[in-house]
Amino acid sequence: MTKFAVLKLISIALFLVLRRAWIRTLYFALLLRISRRLRKGALPMENTRHNAWWKTKLPWALVLFRLSLGPGIVWLGRKFPVPALIVGCIVLALVSDIFDGVLARRWLCDTPRLRRWDTLADTAFYLGVLTLLIVPVQMLLVAFAMRGFQQGWNVELERRDPSAEPGMFAGAPPQPA
């Protein structure tokens, strides 16, 4: 999948998330202008041995942004439970994940250390997203169990007896024939 295809998918997702028509129009016009410049080569990103200092720092900034977004998305999801905000954070992390590697390779500043931190940042971010999704389910299960104990539900675990005939459980009374 080319980077233009990925950018097109991201732009379609953002286009669907944006509610106001004038914001959609402005976003679409900006996206067309940037994609035309990228195709024509008007925004060159040259491979030079003597990189500017910001070219070596930008991939690191994107990795650290994604690393901080891991716990940040959990905090945002708990403090402000707005789905558009969470989707926006996930899209920002996806874009930063794509561009930190692309820019580092293009500007010849990718190192094993940067790749290792990139993997760490991805793991931290997706663990944050997973936490954001799993914690409500865990809370529901805990509430369900508390309600069951409050009402005195009796839950037993039956074990299969290997010496018994097929279909019989240990301690179970024999079934009538």
Tally of discrete structural domains: 2
- Helix/strand class: mainly alpha
Rg, Cα atoms, Å: 26 Å
The description of the largest β-sheet is:
none
Average of pLDDT: 76
Report the sheet-strand fraction.
under 5%
| Termini Cα gap | 63 Å
Outline: elongated
Percent range for helical residues? Answer: over 70%
Q: Tell how many strands the DSSP assignment holds.
A: 0
Describe the protein.
Helix 4 runs antiparallel to helix 5. The radius of gyration is 26 Å and the shape is elongated. It has two domains: 44 residues; 97 residues, no CATH class. The N and C termini lie far apart (63 Å). The longest helix has 40 residues. It is an all-alpha fold. Helices cover 71% and strands 0% of the residues.
In summary, what is this structure?
This protein has 177 residues and is mainly α. The protein is built from 5 helices and no strands. It starts with a helix and ends in a 26-residue tail after the last helix.
Relevant terms:
71% helix, 177 residues, mainly alpha, 0% strand, 2 domains
Write the layout of secondary structure elements.
Layout lengths: L2 H15 L3 H20 L12 H27 L3 H24 L5 H40 L26
Helix pairs in contact: 1-4, 3-4, 3-5, 4-5
